Amino acid sequence: METRPVATALKAAPATPVELPDSGATRFDHVEEAAAFSSLRAKAARYLKPDDLDRLEEAFELACVSHAGQFRISGEPYVFHPLSVAEILAQWHLDVQALISGLLHDVMEDSHVTKTDLESRFGKTVAELVDGVSKLDKIESQTYQQAQAENFRKMFLAMARDVRVILIKLADRLHNMRTLDAVRPDKRRRIARETLEIFAPIANRLGLNTLYRELQELSFKNTHPMRYRVLGNALRAARGNQRELITRLMSSIRERMPAWGVEAEVFGREKHLFGIYRKMVDKNLSFEQVLDIYGFRILVSDIPGCYLALGALHELYKPVPGKIKDYIALPKANGYQSLHTTVIGPNGLPVEVQIRTNEMHAIAESGVASHWLYKDDTAQSLSDLQRKTHNWLQSLLELQSTSGDSSEFFEHVKIDLFPGEVFVFTPAGQIRNLPRGATAVDFAYAVHTDVGNRCVACKINGELRPLRTELKNGDQVEITTAQHAHPNPAWLSYVRTGKARAEIRHFLKTVHQEEATQLGERLLAQALRHLDLQLADIGTTAWERFLKEFSTKLREDIFTDIGLGKRLAAMVARRLADLQDEKSVSDGEPVSKTRVIAPVLIQSGEGMAIQMARCCRPIPGDPIVGLLRKDQGLEVHMNDCPVLTRNHSAERDRWVDVEWEAGAERLFDVGIRVLIHHRRGILARVAAAIADQEANIQNVNMENENGGDTIIHFTIQVKNRPHLAQIMRAVRHIPDVVRIVRDRTTDRPGEKH
Predict the structure, then answer these.
(1) The one catalytic residue among 52, 76, 95, 109
(2) What residues contact 20, with CB distance under 8 A and at least 6 apart?
(3) Domain end call among 326, 343, 377
(4) Is residue 128 part of a domain?
(5) Least confident of 33-37, 122-126, 143-147, 255-259
(6) CATH assignment of the domain containing 712
(7) Ramachandran angles phi, psi of 432, nearest 5°
(8) Is 631 inside any structural domain?
(9) Helices (H), 550-693
(10) Which is catalytic among the residues 2, 110, 194, 661?
(11) 366 and 320 share a domain?
(12) Distance CA 147, CA 129 (A)
């Protein structure tokens, strides 16, 4: 909202809740406002009932009272803004509840009208809609970005419950963008960037194409005013130069359609400035090099007519290879359907043509608003669009449940706002629409969260491929899952969808915290043993005093902090021991002196809270020591690890005694280096010898050695040191193998971390 006080208008604002006008009142204080409302009422009267119009008038009176004395920066009375918002909503034929909410969308922010007031007068639905659009109260400690992220979070969740929330907000933003000239330049640019990043993509995602294009144009005008003017002048000049050519091309298309038995309307259209500008930037072109600044649209009565029109057009003008897109068979995520083709017109001019039915055109221009605009004509198409919109809105609720804070949630939603460009298939032939650049992991999460969390491999078009493989149009993807698999943190570096990113982060946070809590409890128990105490010896009183001292409610929080390296187990143990001793002495009890010292056991199923150090890659049987790293948990190193030796003095207080648990069954990564005489097939023989010993090969890299020999670096998975020794013996017996050693170097050529 942009308001400016006139005289002492704002100072005179009522300090107590305003009185709502009596129902049925029709008296307005200002002729100009009354005239503006008459325009709104006339538009609404085309489709609303008389009783609804009376309720709309009542809402307008409340808006006048609530915004009395408030002015926009332009000097215009503020009430004209909600009037304009409601008029935009009336153009979309939204119901009376939405129009009332548009008129009152700012009253909760700018006056003393409460949600309860609105509910008592206009009903619960209107109150919820207005509340969904209203900003949250500002929290002083928040940055602008944090506050805005929280406001968007509230808006998106309200939108997920009722799509009219975002339609009101979009109408609000459209009118603000249309009247942005009075705002200071820096704020104008910020609002325009926000519109381009958030509101325009939302409009596109909901299929509101006309609104989407206007928001883009207005954003371009306010972020780059000089470029906007220069490009506009160039387009007007080009329009005059090519007018005759475009007219001739349109006439020839109109004449050709009846010969193919197609009744069609043909329209010429000029590309939007923002679209031309983006093409110039993306492809590094000058304006003169952007040839397809004009396009045509062909509207027919049914789907067969679309394909007939395409054939007629291609007979008339040659199509550009690779520029034919069938969005009828494969609709976009926002419900958009059309055939797109680019043909070479007269004088070699490339022209884009869109072919669609009248129903498709209605949805393409109005998206979800078509639900109100064209209820009787496009029932089947709208039901598909409503289902897709509903699914997307439900996905917002899923993101809310898995995102940690507002900024993270906002990031995930922004990722999903940009339109899907890749259509891929499940093995059963179902279509999944994903953003360009999406990977097999994104596909797995699109199928189901559990499929994503448990995926271990994928087949793309019947061939095994890495999970990070980017998908292309038409790919058939099959995901392999495993019961005990879980998301890999490395996936976050290449997934593209907000759902995948949110689910991975949620899993890692949850599991990491659970494992950190268990680890912290074990570390504290170990530290207490050094002080001749068992964890069970620490009584409730000692724990309560300790938690109070450190302003913590639960002892599990202390365990988690220890497991994440935020607190040292030795210090916590020492303070707990002191508190327990004080309690025992006060009660006249003897202090136990039984000394039991036991290291932390590294179990077979350790997860993210206990990690094997990548610098030395210990395996069961190696002498080891633990290093507690802040926010990372326990890192297990070999005793003679060079990295550990370098940090000997600096991190000595974070070292933890650890031992391998007997009978560990998990596989551990280890490096081996094999020096060979380079002979045909030697790599295959070495790999086969490793596989014969039931070991997995994770990575292979080769480098030439002086004298013609070759060094092969393997990363393999083994159970323990005896298993590794068995593998090395098998490889050593192969002819042409000169030497094999365990690779203890920190960085291995060609290996991805």
Answers:
(1) 109
(2) 62, 65, 113, 117, 121
(3) 377
(4) no
(5) 143-147
(6) 3.30.70.260
(7) -120, 130
(8) yes
(9) 555-563, 569-586, 642-646, 682-692
(10) 110
(11) yes
(12) 20
Identify whether 110 is a catalytic site residue.
Answer: yes
Q: Are 440 and 447 in contact (CB under 8 A)?
A: no
Could you give the CA distance from residue 134 to residue 150 in angstroms, rounded to a whole number? 12
Q: How many residues does the chain have?
A: 753
Residue matched to tokens 């280890």? 670
Task: Report pLDDT digits (tens) over 234-274.
Answer: 888 877 667 777 788 888 888 889 988 889 999 887 778 88
Which residues 6+ apart lie within 8 Å of 396 measured at CB?
156, 157, 159, 160, 413
| C-alpha distance from residue 604 to each of 91, 512, 620, 663 (Å) | 65, 17, 10, 8
- Residue 226, C-beta contacts closer than 8 angstroms, at least 6 positions apart: none
In this structure, the answer to whether residues 453 and 365 fall within a common structural domain is no
pLDDT at 387: 58
What is the rounded average pLDDT of the residues 218-224?
Answer: 92
Please check whether residues 358 and 391 belong to one and the same domain. Answer: no
Per-residue pLDDT reduced to its tens digit, 310-361: 999 999 999 988 888 888 888 876 678 899 998 888 777 788 899 999 888 8
- Report, as an integer, the average pLDDT of 600-623: 73
Tokens 């040659």 appear where? 318
Is 273 within 8 Å of 231 (Cβ atoms)? yes
Is 238 found in the same domain as 351? Answer: yes
Residue 6 is predicted with a pLDDT of 28
Whether residue 549 is found in the same domain as residue 677: no
Contact assessment for residue 656 and residue 624, using Cβ atoms and an 8 Å cutoff: no
Single-letter amino acid, residue 325 = K
Secondary structure of residue 339 in the 3-state scheme: strand
Give the C-alpha separation, 602 to 597, whole Å: 16
Residue for token pair 């006060």: 586
- Same-domain status, 422 and 478: yes
One-letter identity of residue 223: T
Of the listed ranges 6-15, 48-57, 123-132, 565-574, the least confidently predicted one is 6-15
Q: Where among 483, 503, 523 does a domain terminate?
A: 503
Compute the distance between CA of residue 174 and CA of residue 89 in angstroms, rounded to an integer: 11
Domain with 472, as residue range(s), is 386-503
**235 and 355 both lie in a single domain:** yes
Residue at 215 is within a domain: no
Strand order in the sheet with 696-704: 696-704, 709-718, 668-677, 737-743
| Strand-by-strand arrangement of the 325-326 sheet | 265-270, 294-300, 350-357, 339-344, 325-326
- The CATH number of the domain holding residue 444 is 3.10.20.30
Q: Which of the four pLDDT bands, split at 50, 70 and 90, describes residue 728?
A: very high
Question: Range with the lowest mean pLDDT among 332-346, 393-407, 620-634?
Answer: 393-407
* Distance between CA atoms of residues 578 and 145, nearest Å: 46
Distances (CA, A) of 677 to 31, 408, 673, 730: 98, 54, 14, 17
Whether residue 740 is predicted with pLDDT greater than 90 in this model: the reply is yes
Q: How many domains does the chain have?
A: 5
Residues facing residue 422 across a β-bridge: 434
Number of H helices, E strands in the chain: 28, 20
DSSP state of 136: P
Long-range Cβ contact pairs of 723-726 (< 8 A, separation 24 or more): 723/693, 723/695, 724/619, 724/670, 724/672, 726/693
User: Is position 45 within any domain?
Assistant: no
Together in a domain, 713 and 593: no
Better-predicted residue by pLDDT, 24 or 283: 283
Tell me the average pLDDT across 479-494: 82
747 is catalytic: no
Q: Are 72 and 81 in contact (CB under 8 A)?
A: yes
